[in-house]
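2024-03-11 09:14:02 INFO queue: dequeued item Gamma-sarcoglycan, len=187
2024-03-11 09:14:02 INFO validating residues
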Amino acid sequence: QMVREQYMTTQGCSLQRPENQYVYKIGIYGWRKRCLYLFVLLLLIILVVNFALTIWILKVMWFSTDGMGYLRVTENGIRLEGESEFLFPLYAKEIRSRTDSPLLVDSSQNVTVNARNSEGQVTGRLTVGPSTVQAHGKHFEINSNTGRMLFSADENEVVVGADRLRVTGIECYKLFTSRRQGGRHAT
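2024-03-11 09:14:37 INFO prediction written
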């Protein structure tokens, strides 16, 4: 059955609207609308909380355009000022202190410096512990500040390059005096 629309023409400008028997509501109504508003409200609350936490983290970590805290990003690399603690191994090409202060490396157990080849294998190691200093490598050398070799050691030989060698201690004294007298000192 077709719906007929009737228009009445009268004098004046008032028009009557036709009666519609079939009215369709377009949109979301009822509980669906309330759930949608609640969902949008929850998203807005989460957005505000995330923004506040981001601002708080930026403030606590001392973020700036140069870096974070004592850590500054420069054109030559990263500059770390003040005391810092590394919880995991530190891998760096170069570590330098400022020109007016020494570089201090402190550990409660030991400090180990490894040298690796291109395959990642350890080729040299220096370990400073609470009671020992150990060096592992093919060749060990100590030089003076002028570059002159003072001590050198490898698997085949040990070389002392100093002009004078002085050995001190009671056992050493007994060994040298017994050799002068022609006898051997057994230890």
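2024-03-11 09:14:37 INFO annotate: Strands lie at 67-68, 71-74, 77-80, 111-116, 122-128, 133-136, 140-143, 149-153, 158-160.
2024-03-11 09:14:38 INFO item closed
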